[in-house]
Structure formats: structure tokens, C-alpha cells
Amino acid sequence: MSPEIFIEDFERTENSDSLHGVIGRSLIIATRFDSMCISLSKLLDIRSMVISKAIGSKLVEQGAVEERITDENFDTLINQVTSKYHSLGASIKSFQLPGEASTILHDARKARNEIAHSLTKGLEGCIDSKVNEEYFINEISRLVKIITDGDIIISSLMSVVNKEPILNESSLSKYRNRVLNWVVEE
């Protein structure tokens, strides 16, 4: 086998396993943010359809429109919304949030993309000698903090949509610290 094509270095050390654990946990946080955004976007699309169906039915009853959305058509629309691909960027745009909140979410999207697509480039095999561990952990910490800020916004929006209580600032601060500690602490 050629080293340029296949991985040849399969050495595992306690240190490399620890770093791989940090990478894996950061990816879990990044994926959670992505999933929450897409889920909220789909939920809002579905709620919009439900409202449209209710309004449409009312308009038919009042004689303002002639065509009623049938249950079968409605089920088809719901299936389309739940099965179609939503990108993270499109999901965030669909929220139409004001300046700072939108910026935080887009920054979290960029941090998520960095973790998912760039963070481990060139780190095949034993990574002990391939990274400056302190710099690497600091970089992951920076990215996870950005994603956690976005996660807090999405989780708060989800709470509002579901008519659930929103955490206070003290609880949110503890949450930020717990997430970061879970990702990077040994």
C-alpha cells in the first residue's frame, strides 16, 4: 500500500485517544446545533401549514374561496416538509431574526462547519506529533463556545414555540460552562 493513498499510521496512545475524544464531543455539540436549527425550521413550516389549512377552511366556510385543502393534500404537504433537505444556513435564514441573534446563529453555523469539515484535516493516524495540544484545545474551546451561544438561542426559540419556560441568565451561564467542560476537560 502507498502511504499517500492509504492511512498507514494506526498507532493509538492515551494522549491521541484523549484528543480524539475531544474532537468527537465537539462534533456532537456541532451536530446538535445543526439538528436543532433544522428541527425548529421544519416545526415552524409545519405550524405555518396548519395555520394556513385552518384559515383556508374558514375562508371556504365563509365562501371567500372555493377550494379546501383536503386531509390527503395536507398530509402530502407535511410529508414534503419533513422529508425535504434543509440546509443549516437556509434554516437559520428562515427564522428571520433581528441583527445580533442572526449574527450569533450564523457565527455558530460557521463554527459548526469548521468542526465538521476542517478541524481534523491532516490528522489521520496518531495525532500526538501533528498538533500543538494547547493551541488545538483552545481552538476547539473557542468554536464550542460560539456554537453553544447559537445553541442557547435555538433552544430558547424552541422553548418559546413550545410554550415552555426559558432558562435565566445564571442557568444559561452554567449550561455554557457544562458544555465546554464536557467537551474539553479530561
Give a brief outline of the structure:
Helix content is 72%, strand content 0%.
List the helices and strands and how they pair.
Blueprint: H1 14-61, H2 71-83, H3 88-94, H4 99-118, H5 133-161, H6 169-184
Helix pairs in contact: 1-2, 1-3, 1-4, 1-5, 1-6, 3-4, 4-5, 5-6
Question: What do these coordinates show?
Answer:
The protein is mainly alpha-helical and 186 residues long. The protein has one domain (14-76, 87-119, 130-184). The chain has 6 helices and no strands. Helix 1 (14-61) packs across helix 4 (99-118) and helix 3 runs antiparallel to helix 4 (99-118). The longest helix is centred in the first third of the chain and has 48 residues, at 14-61. The model has no long low-confidence stretch (mean pLDDT 86).
Main sheet summary? none
Helix segment tally: 6
Please provide the count of β strands.
0
Specify Rg, calculated over alpha carbons: 22 Å
What string, H for helix and E for strand, traces the elements in order? HHHHHH
Question: Which range best describes the helical content: under 10%, 10-25%, 25-40%, 40-55%, 55-70% or over 70%?
Answer: over 70%
- Overall 3D shape: elongated
Count up the domains: 1
Pick out its properties:
single chain, 186 residues, mainly alpha, 6 helices, 0% strand, elongated
